[in-house]
Amino acid sequence: MRVAVSGSTGMIGEALIAELRRDGHAIHRLVRERSRATGDDVYWSVERHELDTDRLDGVDAVVHLAAEPIGDKRWSADQKSRILESRSQGTRLLSEGLASLRNPPAVLVSMSGADYYGDRGDEILTESAAPGTTFLAEVCVAWEEAAEPARAAGIRVVHPRNGVVIAHTGPLMDKVRLPFRLGVGGRIGDGHQYVPWVAMQDEIRALRLFIDRDDLEGPFNVVSPQTATNRELTKALGAAMHRPTIMPIPAFALQVLYGELGIALGVHSKRVVPTKLQEVGFTWRHEDLGEAVEVALN
After folding, report:
1. How far are the Cα atoms of 40, 131, 263, 287 from residue 200, in angstroms, in the given order?
2. N or C: more exposed end of the chain, with fewer CB within 10 A?
3. Full-prediction pTM beyond 0.70?
4. Are the CB atoms for 210 and 216 separated by under 8 Å?
5. Contacts of 66 (CB under 8 A, 6+ apart)
6. In this structure, what are the phi and psi dihedrals at residue 125, rounded to the nearest 5 degrees?
7. What would the pLDDT profile of 89-116 be if each residue is shown by its tens digit?
8. Could you list the residue range(s) of the whole structural domain that residue 230 is in?
9. Number of domains, the chain
10. CATH code, domain with 131
């Protein structure tokens, strides 16, 4: 197949491209500088509203991963605007471009997130659950709605609602590795908040499934069927690193240090379950949280 990928230099993008290339598929990376758009690469710029649509004509699938990172900076009004617009405007630009093609792709896999559900305590959240009311929930709703031009043009659209991806170089492991190894890692608040998660290998396998199966569309919760609380995640990290986890982090401390960002990523609770993936027979390689953490660390 010919597969176009945005966000190709990100953690998921690099892993997906490596997997696709191993199976002999041709990759067209979406790049943001014309000077880098060589070979099979495709130039696009969300800021300039530019996309070389001609170079996408005839591709079989598009996987759209590009977006402003959520957890890299404290959320100012400007940063929140960048987080929203990079997703909504980028997705709409790409969707409109694909819809205009003479030979459009069969499928657009357009990323979303488990934050779609907001802060919901211990409520079990399937794909049919209503969206939440938090900032990130509103972002995810706009993100998914922006793919409407592709849907209207008859392109099959899939929205992976990702949990935290547990990977060796992922944002989670990068943030916790040092404090846990120093013995100062601990749960956040009471640790009862649910953290949706998925191992990197299963993330990539799910994306491949969405590309390959022409009967799949709409939102899919890409998370492990083993739900986990922050307390359980903390315990798994401590066990994998052979360190104690006896120093809890007060929720108010996260708010003081990181503001709204700290509360959104550390305190909000989302008990997300992968109902649709289970219904189509998807099997997980790393369903157990402790195993997934061990694999990521090693």
Report:
1. 26, 25, 25, 11
2. C
3. yes
4. yes
5. 6, 7, 10, 30, 86, 90
6. -115, 105
7. 999 999 999 999 999 999 999 999 999 9
8. 2-297
9. 1
10. 3.40.50.720
